[in-house]
Design brief:
The chain is about 25% helix and about 40% strand. By secondary structure, it is of the alpha+beta class. The strands form 2 sheets. The chain has a 6-stranded mixed barrel. Strands 1-12-11 form a 3-stranded antiparallel beta sheet.
Length: about 160
């Protein structure tokens, strides 16, 4: 099986299930892939949550990787604090906890590692509803993860990207 097909299968598995258990042989292939065509960024695991450093409108921030989220989502206060144009709260987001009001936002740039997404529409909601004083700006969902062909290695605490 060629490397691209292996990575494509891992990406599909990652988007569907979340994290990919990989063998030592696969790790070497992913490292070679990263060195040749992509990048590897460090992730921090806290209570089974994956966090990465990135940027929101060129401001350094921390993102929560949420492979179960179809779309990325901003915390409303973080959007306002990072000069994101926030529209009216006339939309809804749905999740395990039910639904919540949300606003459409226009973001100049979102980045994780060298992967940069410009002029994107993202929803924002109050992510602080259940947890007080969150320290991340939002959820990096499957939409962005698919675009940069992300593969997550739990054991190495790394995310491999190709954009």
């Amino acid at each position: 099986m060629n490397l691209f097909r292996s990575i494509a299968i891992a990406i599909t598995f990652t988007a569907t299930v979340g994290l990919v258990p990989i063998s030592a042989k696969d790790e070497v292939q992913y490292r070679n892939f990263t060195n040749a065509k992509g990048q590897s960024i460090s992730a921090v695991l806290v209570d089974n949550h994956i966090f990465v450093d990135g940027k929101l409108n060129n401001n350094p921030v921390k993102w929560l990787i949420d492979t179960g989220a179809d779309n990325s989502l901003l915390h409303l206060k973080a959007a306002q604090d990072n000069n994101v144009v926030v529209g009216p709260m006339d939309k809804k987001v749905y999740g395990i906890g039910g639904s919540a009001p949300a606003a459409g936002c226009m973001v100049d740039s979102v980045s994780m590692g060298n992967a940069v997404f410009k002029k994107r529409k993202i929803l924002a909601t109050d992510l602080d509803r259940f947890q007080q004083d969150i320290d991340y700006v939002g959820l990096f969902g499957a939409d962005f993860m698919r675009e940069c062909n992300a593969v997550i290695t739990y054991r190495e605490q790394r995310i491999f990207l190709k954009q």
